[in-house]
């Protein structure tokens, strides 16, 4: 089984690439969604987060995401602490998920912070989806849940596209000039026939 990682900044089109993978019958693990679920349900995460940030971080048996965001936004140390608690549990959960799908020749992990979290250590190949920053901002603003300033702040808080591109095995250009379908097909041909 080949474990593919897909990453890209906000508005890059990472989710669209993952949808294309799903069309190829490739199961995709959505790290953002699974992290939200684990933050609410994992006793390990809950215990460590409340030890680090206080018992009132959980309300009605759910993580108070706004409160955590407030604690980690613009605070490198708190962000590192939260990530050091959540990311290892998420990686473990992904590996269990992958094991249940071992009959699939290829599976994928969709993670915005793939390299920041060190997830490449549990993957065989990685893909970064790139798009010009102006295009990314425009796409993200159209989605409607963030302002241009919030999108720029998020983009600036993550590893740069250049750094990620140097670490990735494959680069997909999502600039409107290149076919996403063709680029994904080429990558799948390479990973399916490595010799």
Explain what the structure shows.
The chain has 195 residues and is an alpha/beta fold. It has nine helices and seven strands. The chain has helices at residues 14-23, 31-41, 43-53, 65-72, 76-99, 133-143, 148-157, 161-167, 180-192; strands spanning 2-7, 28-30, 58-59, 62-63, 106-110, 125-130, 170-173. Strands 2-5-1-6-7 form a five-stranded parallel β-sheet, with helices on both faces.
Q: Which descriptors apply to this entry?
A:
five-stranded parallel sheet; 195 residues; two-stranded antiparallel sheet; 7 strands; globular; alpha/beta; 14% strand; single chain
What are the low-pLDDT stretches, counting only 5+ consecutive residues below 50?
Answer: none
Overall spatial form: globular
- Topology as a string of helices (H) and strands (E): EHEHHEEHHEEHHHEH
User: Taking all residues together, what is the mean pLDDT?
Assistant: 91
Helix content: 40-55%
The strand line-up of the biggest sheet is 2-5-1-6-7
* Structural Rg: 17 Å
Structural class: alpha/beta
Helix tally? Answer: 9
What is the strand and helix layout of this fold?
Elements: E1 2-7, H1 14-23, E2 28-30, H2 31-41, H3 43-53, E3 58-59, E4 62-63, H4 65-72, H5 76-99, E5 106-110, E6 125-130, H6 133-143, H7 148-157, H8 161-167, E7 170-173, H9 180-192
Parallel strand pairs: 1-5, 1-6, 2-5, 6-7
Antiparallel strand pairs: 3-4
Helix pairs in contact: 2-5, 3-5
């Amino acid at each position: 089984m080949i474990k593919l990682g897909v990453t890209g900044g906000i508005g890059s089109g990472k989710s669209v690439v993952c949808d294309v993978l799903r069309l190829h019958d490739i199961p995709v693990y959505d790290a953002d969604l699974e992290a939200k679920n684990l933050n609410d349900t994992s006793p390990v995460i809950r215990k460590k987060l409340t030890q680090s940030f206080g018992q009132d971080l959980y309300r009605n048996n759910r993580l108070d995401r706004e409160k955590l965001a407030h604690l980690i936004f613009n605070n490198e140390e708190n962000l590192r602490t939260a990530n050091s608690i959540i990311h290892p549990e998420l990686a473990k959960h992904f590996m269990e998920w992958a094991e249940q799908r071992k009959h699939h020749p290829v599976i994928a992990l969709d993670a915005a912070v793939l390299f920041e979290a060190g997830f490449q250590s549990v993957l065989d190949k990685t893909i970064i989806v790139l798009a010009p920053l102006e295009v990314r901002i425009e796409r993200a603003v159209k989605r409607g849940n963030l302002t241009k300033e919030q999108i720029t702040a998020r983009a600036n808080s993550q590893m740069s596209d250049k750094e990620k591109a140097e670490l990735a095995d494959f680069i997909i250009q999502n600039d409107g000039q290149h076919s996403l379908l063709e680029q994904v097909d080429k990558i799948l041909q390479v990973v399916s026939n490595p010799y």
